[in-house]
């Protein structure tokens, strides 16, 4: 399949991109980053914008910055890591800082697609496309990430859950808004485990886990799944079963509760796995993700 005709603009700056989006507001303009979700959509007829705004050459949208202070209206504390929206998966994997301070992102990226896609695909594009089997939405939820955007009304910060529509609502990203960076608070723990789709590499089921451990006891837990519903989702029953428990005792029983909050009738079903099977798989991958999170902490 060939993509439909579109006008192409290569943006030189964020302001330039926002200006083009505004001028073409009636032409269904779309932002182009790594292109690994958008170009297949164009070729398959799932998207037919009249205008593409390529942000790939904008300075300052790519890179990983440590020790970023947060605004006073968030409760993440200081020392966050800022990941530019155009940061590729390969950049994430090369970052020792992320591996130490946000290992859940590194772990999820390690098993994301293949080498070609990891060289081109971007963190911002992955979270914006938020495809049902994408790996980073679950990792971003577990990491308690915030998404920073700029648009016609200026800058704003969106909680990952709201951005990803983790409660089943529409994504909070507005029209003509551009993701500029993703911020994550520091956490020395984090693990991701996935049942990989045999053809595409997407997650049939993926689980991300971040634990806060205080002398052998789990003080806080964030566990999220992808691939099961149309959007990534927090596994709150697992989180509740972990908090306050001893690390070495809690995993198995907590992981068994992974499917509790998801009705199999709501789960994605296709030729490869029924909704019921996807929900059934959750416990296995939750246990693996939690074990990996504790390995990282050790
Ligand atoms: C064969 C194949 C296998 C794949 N396997 C996996 C996998 O295993 N796991 C996985 O997670 N993903 C997988 N992907 C998807 C891949 O990771 C994409 O790179 C990703 O989903 C989108 O990122 P991108 O940079 O390519 O974005 P693009 O395709 O350029 O854009 C995607 C969407 O996001 C919007 N967008 C992009 N950047 C911004 C921004 N900064 N601000 C606002 N909007 C923006 C675009 O307008 C578009 O709507 C696979 C893709 C392919 C083709």
Automatic annotation (TrEMBL):
Q: Which PROSITE patterns match?
A: FAD_PCMH (PS51387)
Q: Which InterPro entries match?
A: CO_DH_flav_C (IPR005107), CO_DH_flav_C_dom_sf (IPR036683), Diverse_Substr_Oxidored (IPR051312), FAD-bd_PCMH (IPR016166), FAD-bd_PCMH-like_sf (IPR036318), FAD-bd_PCMH_sub1 (IPR016167), FAD-bd_PCMH_sub2 (IPR016169), Mopterin_DH_FAD-bd (IPR002346)
- Pfam families per the UniProt record, alphabetical: CO_deh_flav_C (PF03450), FAD_binding_5 (PF00941)
Q: Which domain of life is it from?
A: Archaea
Tell me where in this chain the FAD-binding PCMH-type domain is found. Answer: 1-189
Q: Where is the signal peptide?
A: none
Key words of the record = FAD, Flavoprotein, Oxidoreductase
Q: What is this protein identified as?
A: FAD binding domain-containing protein
């Amino acid at each position: 399949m060939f993509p439909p005709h579109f006008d192409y603009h290569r943006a030189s700056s964020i302001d330039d991109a926002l200006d083009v989006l505004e001028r073409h507001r009636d032409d269904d303009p779309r932002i182009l980053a790594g292109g690994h979700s958008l170009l297949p959509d164009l070729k398959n007829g799932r998207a037919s914008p009249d205008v593409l705004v390529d942000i790939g050459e904008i300075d300052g949208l790519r890179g990983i910055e440590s020790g970023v202070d947060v605004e006073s209206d968030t409760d993440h504390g200081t020392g966050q890591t800022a990941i530019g929206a155009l940061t590729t998966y390969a950049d994430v994997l090369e970052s020792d800082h992320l591996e130490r301070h946000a290992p859940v992102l590194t772990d999820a990226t390690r098993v994301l697609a293949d080498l070609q896609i990891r060289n081109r695909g971007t963190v911002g594009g992955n979270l914006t496309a938020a495809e049902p089997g994408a790996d980073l939405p679950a990792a971003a939820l577990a990491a308690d990430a915030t998404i920073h955007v700029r648009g016609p009304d200026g800058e704003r910060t969106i909680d990952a859950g709201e951005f990803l529509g983790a409660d089943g609502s529409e994504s909070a990203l507005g029209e003509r808004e551009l993701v500029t960076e993703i911020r994550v608070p520091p956490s020395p723990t984090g693990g991701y485990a996935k049942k990989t789709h045999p053809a595409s590499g997407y997650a049939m089921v993926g689980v991300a886990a971040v634990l806060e451990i205080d002398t052998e006891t789990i003080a806080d837990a964030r566990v999220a799944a992808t691939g099961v519903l149309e959007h990534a989702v927090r596994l709150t029953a697992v989180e509740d079963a972990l908090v306050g428990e001893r690390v070495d005792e809690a995993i198995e029983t907590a992981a068994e509760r992974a499917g509790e909050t998801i009705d199999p009738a709501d789960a994605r079903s296709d030729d490869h796995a029924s909704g019921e099977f996807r929900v059934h798989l959750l416990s296995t991958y939750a246990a693996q993700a939690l074990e990996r999170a504790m390995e990282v902490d050790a």
